[in-house]
Amino acid sequence: MVRVYKFFAYFIFFIIMLYAFFPKANLYYQAQTYLANYKIKITNATLHENIFSLNLQHVTVAYEGIKTAKIAKMHIVLLGISNSIDVNGIILSGIVKNFLPQRIDKASLHYSILHPLEIKAELKGDFGNAKCFYEIGKDKLIMQLYPSAIMKTHYKSSLRELKKLKNGVYRYETTL
Amino acid sequence: MKQHSNTKYIQISLTLLYLVLFAKVVSVIALWFLPSHSVDARLQNSLNMPYMLVNFHNMLENTKKISQTAQYQGSDNTVDINTLILTALYGQGSYGYVIVALKKHPRKTTLLSVGESYQGYKLKAIFLNYALFSKMNRNYKLRLNPSSASQDLVHPVMSQSTEHIIQRTQINSYVHNPSDIWRDISIQQVGTNGSFKGFRVTRIRRGTPFALLGLRVGDLIVKANNIALKSYNDVLKIYQNLNKLNALTLVVKRGNTEKDIVYEID
After folding, report:
1. What digits encode the pLDDT tens for the residues B126-140?
2. Which of A35, B12, B78, B246 sits at 20 to 30 Å (Cα–Cα) from B123?
3. ipTM of the assembly?
4. Confidence class of residue B3 from pLDDT cuts 50, 70 and 90?
């Protein structure tokens, strides 16, 4: 039994060392290449590698060559067991300003091995608060929106696209 | 007993050291396989060439004049290079053509191939943003003048085309208030991503500028400024540059015929 504990202790130590030494910036470049296959381009980022995380600043996101958003800061932690991406200061392109407020203050994506078939995201911005769930096996995206006063007054047409629930929450569901 | 304990600690330390080394080796191997540079994302809006509408009718007429002018190449009856403007160029080196005009008549454009002459200047070569002319064993550069090119928007001669003049203020009003577009006109995507056909006009509000611009309900818009509309993103690309355009040409399918609708933005 002691040997088993010893093995796990060494294994965890090895994994921690692997995370610490792993070239995170290069892994980010690999992710960029992967996303480029889906016509998503992440550019202009200033990278800063930490021991267990990667920080990006001044990121531009483009979809099909169209500048879609500018991001002030991104903090990426990929530990395998628990992975998170925290995004701060998102300014969406002017093309969405008639459908949504352009500013998103914070977006957090989280994936944990405890819920292997679900990616969670929480967003907070001028539009209000939103909780998103992506079901990996079913390719299903569910969003629950708690709209702000701005959203309710200026973006009624966008809200009409969502299903209104009883408690003032709006729900959007789609299969990708 | 103490010696035994020390040996144990040394053994653990060595194992940990080996693990650190092994983790480092794995990381270096990973580094070998992972890309070392960022994806060079050249955003498409910086690559799109500006759309220009050129009067081919004028060009054909002027080409006849060129052959006459070429006969007088040796005479002194030539103009200074400063009196010419280069409105467009196509090709590179000794292949391609340019569109030139006299500054005093910027709308009377002339199409020149390499080797042809205009006003005594012989076109020698074409470069990225200028054309090289020669006259009397001297070389002259004529730089591309996009501002004058944009003025060279004249009416095309096409049997299946109609043209309309739109005020820029009207365009700007729609650019700043896109919701007005959807209030005045509705378009619907036709076809799937695999076989995309274009956008069908499903509604045009009466009395709005759209009602006066030649579009009809049922028209299928297949191209805008020679860009095939294959997705909403293609439409957005046009929309994003709308306030910079001097002309917009829509290719629409109406019944079995294809029709060009040209909008000159004044």
Report:
1. 877 788 888 877 888
2. B246
3. 0.74
4. low
The pLDDT value recorded for residue B22 is 92
Q: Does A95 sit within 8 Å of B236, measured CB to CB?
A: yes
Domains of chain B: 56-151 (2.30.30.830), 161-265 (2.30.42.10)
Q: How close does chain A come to B164, measured CA to CA in Å? A: 26
Distance to chain A for B40, nearest Cα, Å: 8
The verdict on B193 touching A (C-beta cutoff 8 Å) is no
Give residue limits of the domains in chain A.
Answer: 2-175
| Contact of A146 with A130, CB cutoff 8 Å | yes
Look at residues B147, B158, B139, B56 and name the one whose alpha carbon lies nearest to residue B99: B56
> CA B4 → CA A5, A113, B11, B79, distances in Å?
21, 41, 11, 102
- Which one of B40-49, B113-122, B178-187 scores highest in mean pLDDT? B113-122
* CB atoms B45 and A65 under 8 Å: yes
Residues of chain A with pLDDT under 50: none
Nearest to B259 by CA among B159, B164, B161, B163: B161
Q: Report the pLDDT averaged over residues B70-83.
A: 50
DSSP assignment string, B18-35? HHHHHHHHHHHHHHHHS-
| Residue A127, C-beta contacts closer than 8 angstroms, at least 6 positions apart | A100, A101, A104, A145, A147, A148, A150, A151, A155
Half-sphere exposure of B91 (CA within 13 A, CB side): 17
> Residue B201's closest CA among B213, B192, B193?
B213
For residue A175, which of A135, A132, A120 has the smallest C-alpha distance? A135
Rg of chain B over Cα atoms, rounded to whole angstroms, equals 30
In the predicted structure, residue B158 carries a pLDDT above the cut 60: no
Q: How many residues are present in chain A?
A: 176
Is there a contact between B30 and A22 if contact means CB atoms under 8 Å apart? yes
Determine the pLDDT at residue A130.
93
B168 within 8 A of B265, measured Cβ to Cβ: yes
